[in-house]
Write a structure and sequence with these properties.
heterodimer; A: about 400 residues; mainly alpha; two-stranded antiparallel ribbon; about 65% helix; about 0% strand; B: mainly alpha; 8 helices
Chain lengths: ~400, ~180
């Protein structure tokens, strides 16, 4: 990259940014379509299939509908923050993708163009920093709406995001210890080999599970969508939003999912590597193929997102906090200790991988045992049933 | 002016405007938001210095975690707009004036010194700033600064335990 003329550098960067941002936006549309179709398939119904072949143009119709809807700003809201909030959620989702390497490199006109927008030394920290800002969009939108349901949703979401961010950060540290002396996502992707057993998710299996779960919580997806639990909070933090502002919240959620999947693929699933497809077809095609591999891996991961959403019910709030602090966090912490110790002692990735799983199993058993032992006895049911208001049933009795 | 100087002025200006906004806004939420803007601009200044790790840590710790808790508390307590008149009474006013004069003197002293010091005034901004990597920081933390590092972690641990002791009232069973 250093020997590239400035003009080529700028031009290639602009082209890459344009392609990636547009792929993200189109990806959001495809995801919305996929979510509705897959949920339809899982629930044995059709889903949208009228607009275009297989309903593929449905997101465009939805988008047009959003644009032509009245952009309502209620009277009782805090207007500057109300307008700002959707953008504050959307922008972090968009800029995170800058450090994700989405392929090896393409050689065009004699210049080797690496397939990422920016390869910075603190890549992972950048991602953690930017995702931690996403919470402001939710919290400010909730507060500015001046609506009790919105505020409750925002408070829930901020508590949840802060709790799970810890696991998100700790889950990565094991990888960093085994990867050279940099936090660059590109290096992490390169150091994982072409074969699945060389990828990080097997070496750090408990950390992988903890990280993925924390990411679901960060994106406010089911089973962690307490911020917008329809049955309790109408629509949570975006209750008061309409038209494109609501669409921006919606887009941000899906964009976070896509970027989160891309980051997970880079960190744990070998990035753009896949055995047998390395260096196929010369300098241009191999770059495109590596991009294709990355794309397919991300798509599979996104499908799992939808799959989980339509499989698991929502957590209750205390379950959410217990799960995050008493299971995920200890697992992530143990993984750091075990990875470091075994790596120094043996230097074998196989032993580190086995040790991680065993240690995580032990920790989960201990925590579960402690929780069962310390469980307070169920409060005795009072005889007079004073906890319940008299109902029609009592009258019948 | 080279690009770095332009960026320095940009980030510096944003940091200053944000800092002024913190104390100018009547509403605590807007003040907290302005503080976040200032933190962000400071992170930009750290990047210009080549301290990428510190910049990221600044955003993660201050903008990402501490300020969220600030907002959280402000929202939960539902603080209204603050009136300056009510706060500025008697002793506080005197203290504010004294501290203000001290701060102004300090600022003037630094500015005059910097202008007279030819080494600073004529120094060319180093265009190739040395970028410290996380690796360098880690190595320093675990060798040269091991004791301060461990002491800091102990202090944080003490704070953690203190919070738990304060929150858990006596005789209260865990649910």
């Amino acid at each position: 990259m250093e020997n590239m003329p400035l003009l080529v550098l700028i031009l290639s960067s602009v082209v890459k940014i344009l392609i990636i941002v547009h792929m993200l936006i189109i990806g959001v549309m495809v995801m919305i379509w996929a979510e509705r179709r897959v949920s339809g398939w899982m629930q044995d119904r059709l889903g949208p299939n009228r607009v275009g072949p297989q309903g593929l143009l449905q997101p465009i119709a939805d988008g047009l509908k959003f644009m032509f809807k009245e952009d309502l700003i209620p009277n009782h809201v805090d207007k500057p923050l109300y307008v700002l909030a959707p953008a504050m959620l959307l922008v972090p989702a968009l800029v995170t993708v800058a450090v994700v390497p989405f392929g090896s490199s393409i050689t065009l006109f004699g210049y080797e163009i690496p397939l990422h927008i920016a390869d910075i030394n603190i890549g992972i920290l950048y991602i953690l920093a930017i995702t931690s800002l996403g919470v402001y969009g939710v919290v400010l939108g909730a507060w500015a709406s001046n609506n009790k349901y919105s505020l409750l949703g925002g408070l829930r979401s901020s508590a949840q995001m802060i709790s799970y961010e810890l696991t998100l950060g700790l889950g990565i540290i094991g990888i960093l210890m085994l990867t050279g002396n940099t936090l660059s996502l590109r290096t992490i992707a390169i150091e994982q080999g072409a074969y699945p057993w060389q990828w990080n998710f097997l070496i750090h299996f408990p950390a992988f599970l903890a990280f993925t779960t924390a990411m679901y919580a960060e994106t406010n997806r089911l089973p962690f969508d307490l911020a917008e639990a329809e049955q309790e909070l109408v629509a949570g933090y975006h209750t008061e939003y309409s038209s494109m502002k609501f669409a921006m919240f919606f887009m941000a959620e899906y964009m976070n999912m896509i970027v989160g999947s891309a980051v997970t693929v880079t960190l744990f699933l070998g990035g753009w590597h896949f055995f047998g497809l390395e260096n196929v077809g010369g300098p241009v095609w191999s770059g495109l193929i590596s991009f294709g591999i990355f794309f397919v891996k991300t798509a599979i991961f996104l499908f799992v997102f939808i799959w989980v959403r339509w499989t698991l019910p929502r957590f209750r709030y205390d379950q959410l906090m217990n799960f995050g602090w008493k299971f995920l966090l200890p697992v992530a912490l143990t993984s750091i200790v075990v990875t470091g110790t075994l790596w120094i002692m043996t230097g074998s990735r196989l032993i580190v991988g086995i040790g991680n799983v065993v240690a995580a199993f032990i920790v989960v058993s201990i925590v579960a045992g402690l929780l069962v032992m310390n469980k307070a006895p169920e409060p005795a049911i009072q005889d007079d049933d004073s906890r319940f208001a008299p109902t029609a049933l009592d009258a019948i009795e | 002016m080279n690009p770095e100087q332009i960026l320095f002025i940009l980030f510096g200006a944003v940091a200053l405007i944000g800092a002024i906004a913190v104390i100018s806004f009547r509403h605590p939420i807007y003040s907290a938001l302005s503080l976040i803007v200032t933190f962000f601009a400071q992170a930009g200044l750290f990047v210009l210095l080549g301290a990428h790790f510190v910049a990221a840590a600044q955003v993660i710790v201050y903008a990402g975690a501490i300020m969220v808790l600030f907002l959280f508390v402000i929202m939960l307590l539902n603080l209204g707009t603050l009136s300056v008149k009510g706060m500025m009474s008697g002793k506080l006013k005197g203290l504010a004036i004294i501290l203000g004069i001290l701060f102004a003197a300090e600022g003037i002293y630094i500015a005059v010194n910097a202008l007279n010091d030819t080494a600073v005034a004529s120094a060319e901004p180093t265009t190739a700033a040395v970028t410290t990597t996380t690796y360098d920081i880690g190595e320093l933390l675990f060798s040269k600064y091991l004791l301060p590092f461990e002491v800091t972690s102990l202090i944080l641990l003490a704070a953690l335990i203190g919070v738990i002791v304060l929150v858990k009232r006596e005789g209260q069973e865990e649910n």
